Task: inverse folding
């Protein structure tokens, strides 16, 4: 069938073209050459010496020395649509993603209203995303006490297409998304085994201490007050308990085929050691961290600057270096944004109360330059970026046609200039709904996205978006 070019889906009015560059990041290494795209798929990757060119010059987009990588896959973002689209929403969130080189994002089941915990609420997500997404979007479902022991309900939700489930081991801050116990998680994992899909877990368990001392308003503005309320022992306790279920995922175990993924790990000490040990024992388990834990440290967060409040909290500089070490050594599997915005009022930038402010960092558009800016001095390579941001998340979400530049894969492609720097100030075009709450405003960053292709559509180039929202919904 003929493709109609007046639909506004792409800034490039062709179904077949070549992306040429001196640095194409492929599974086999970095090559100079050209990527041939046809009808939304990568049909070949040809090295420069073998490339005879295209008979039609108009079919070649020459990006020179810019880096061509698989588009980023952000497996952990909260777009808050439907119900709290005033916090972010599908249109602004996916426009920001496109401008940031993210070609696929998997939306979390909470912070929208309602939460995605049933077939009915998934249908509301699907409806809200219709004609409103500029990149590919998939959905995680919620594992909550209400559905955890209801086999029919969980199977129906998985059959309806969620790519896996997500649960919290501590209060989530959202009323219709209550926390789960290890028993709920065990039940959920046994259902996931049959579908070979993952459970993503927010791993913190509230530890009873002597009780918090009364803090006055001045103390509540202090970052160290907040940090003390969520110590690393919360993460450690959760992961220890999670591993008592994770043992079921070993080959021959009761839940073989299921997979456990620890989201946004902040503690690089005992918690990470426990995960390493579980991997050694054959558990099917992976772990992610987020750019904010790699870019910032507790020492530098100013009192009252609640843009930096997230859970688990950003810890000290020594811990940050250990997170980098874990990434570089392969003990940290991947990265995600955990973009979790809200209204500026709820972020309480006015009074800077860390204990009352919404927990969540706004970052979606900037995860690539942030990873690169803070990673390049530590020796991060393009191959590692592609692994942490594309290959591994594709595997987690069960998307075998994504995550690599290779023939037969989806043409989800990012082109960027690692040497270009920019000031993220008020003049910079930020597509997020609430730029003022982003933790990165005011920073100078390296790594500029030049072009983003989603299923062959050129959805973003040099600051301009394709007018129509033609992203694909991904249902399992
Ligand atoms: N309700 C939330 O979105 N919480 C999120 N908030 C953070 N990370 O501070 C999260 O992922 O836990
Ligand atoms: Zn979380
Ligand atoms: Zn989150």
Result:
């Amino acid at each position: 069938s003929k493709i109609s070019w007046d639909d506004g889906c792409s800034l490039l009015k062709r179904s077949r073209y070549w992306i040429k560059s001196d640095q194409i990041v492929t599974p086999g290494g970095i090559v100079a050459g050209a990527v041939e795209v046809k009808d939304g798929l990568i049909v070949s990757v040809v090295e420069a010496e073998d490339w005879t060119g295209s008979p039609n010059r108009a079919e070649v987009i020459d990006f020179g020395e810019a880096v061509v990588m698989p588009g980023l896959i952000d497996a952990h973002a909260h777009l808050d649509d439907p119900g709290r689209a005033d916090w972010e929403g599908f249109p602004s969130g996916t426009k920001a993603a496109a401008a940031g080189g993210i070609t696929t994002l998997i939306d979390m089941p909470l912070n929208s209203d309602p939460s995605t915990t049933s077939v009915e609420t998934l249908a509301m997500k699907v409806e809200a995303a219709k004609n409103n997404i500029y990149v590919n979007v998939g959905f995680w479902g919620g594992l909550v006490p209400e559905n955890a022991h209801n086999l029919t309900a969980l199977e129906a939700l998985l059959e309806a297409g969620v790519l896996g489930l997500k649960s919290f081991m501590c209060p989530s801050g959202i009323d219709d998304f209550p926390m789960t116990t290890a028993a709920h998680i065990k039940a959920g994992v046994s259902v996931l085994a049959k579908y070979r899909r993952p459970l993503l877990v927010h791993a913190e368990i509230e530890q009873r201490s002597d009780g918090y001392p009364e803090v006055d308003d001045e103390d509540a503005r202090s970052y160290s007050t907040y940090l003390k309320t969520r110590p690393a022992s919360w993460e450690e306790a959760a992961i220890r308990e999670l591993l008592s279920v994770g043992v079921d995922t070993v080959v021959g175990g009761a839940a073989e085929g299921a997979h456990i993924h620890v989201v946004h790990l902040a503690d690089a000490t005992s918690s990470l050691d426990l995960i390493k040990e579980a991997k050694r024992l054959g558990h099917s388990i992976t772990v992610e961290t987020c750019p904010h834990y790699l870019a910032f440290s507790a020492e530098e967060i100013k009192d009252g600057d609640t843009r930096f409040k997230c859970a688990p909290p950003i810890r000290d500089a020594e811990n940050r270096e250990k997170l980098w070490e874990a990434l570089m050594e392969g003990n940290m599997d991947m990265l995600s944004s955990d973009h979790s915005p809200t209204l500026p009022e709820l972020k309480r930038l006015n009074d800077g109360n860390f204990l009352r402010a919404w927990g969540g960092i706004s970052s979606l558009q900037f995860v690539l330059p942030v990873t690169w800016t803070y990673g390049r001095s530590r020796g991060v390579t393009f191959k590692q970026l592609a692994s942490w941001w594309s290959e591994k998340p594709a595997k987690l979400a069960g998307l075998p046609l994504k995550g690599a530049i290779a023939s037969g894969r989806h043409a989800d492609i990012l082109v960027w200039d690692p040497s270009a720097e920019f000031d993220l100030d008020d003049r910079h075009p930020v597509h997020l709904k609430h730029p003022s709450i982003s933790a990165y405003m005011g920073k100078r960053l390296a790594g500029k996205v030049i072009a983003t292709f989603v299923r062959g559509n050129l959805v973003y180039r040099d600051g301009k978006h394709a007018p129509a929202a033609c992203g694909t919904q991904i249902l399992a």
